[in-house]
Design brief:
The protein has 138 residues and is mainly α. The protein has one domain. It has 6 helices and no strands. The longest helix is centred in the first third of the chain and has 22 residues, at 16-37. The protein is elongated, with a radius of gyration of 19 Å. The chain starts with 15 loop residues before the first helix and ends with a helix.
Length: 138
Amino acid sequence: MLVRITSSADPTGLTLPTGVAGAILGAILLAIGIAHYRGYRWWMADPRNVRQHTFVTQYTVLAVGWLGAALLLGVASAPLPSTLGAVAAVLGAICGLVGLVGLCWLPRFLRPRWLLALQTDPRIGAQLERRARSGDKA
């Protein structure tokens, strides 16, 4: 049995501005993560660039997508009926856990193909960079 503890009269515990701000931030983070999974700004995960920033790993931007999904599901779970809200909250917690772990490491099945290729052969970064500069998408 889930019990919601709130200090306001609103049964969801979220005020409209808080919920909207959380949803917007979650959507932005999710969009950034999805774009990076699809290969946009892949060079951020290139080992040559990651070494320049001590707080960034090859998985940091990918983890942002998981954290955005967690935030969206968390905000969405508040106004939903108890069963659906509980399912959204659990899924949000799972996404949040994957996002937090993903800041340092992601399992192979959650890594995009381009990152696996980059980790297998770091020289592929130079090849991808040349292709990107010449405009070749193949």
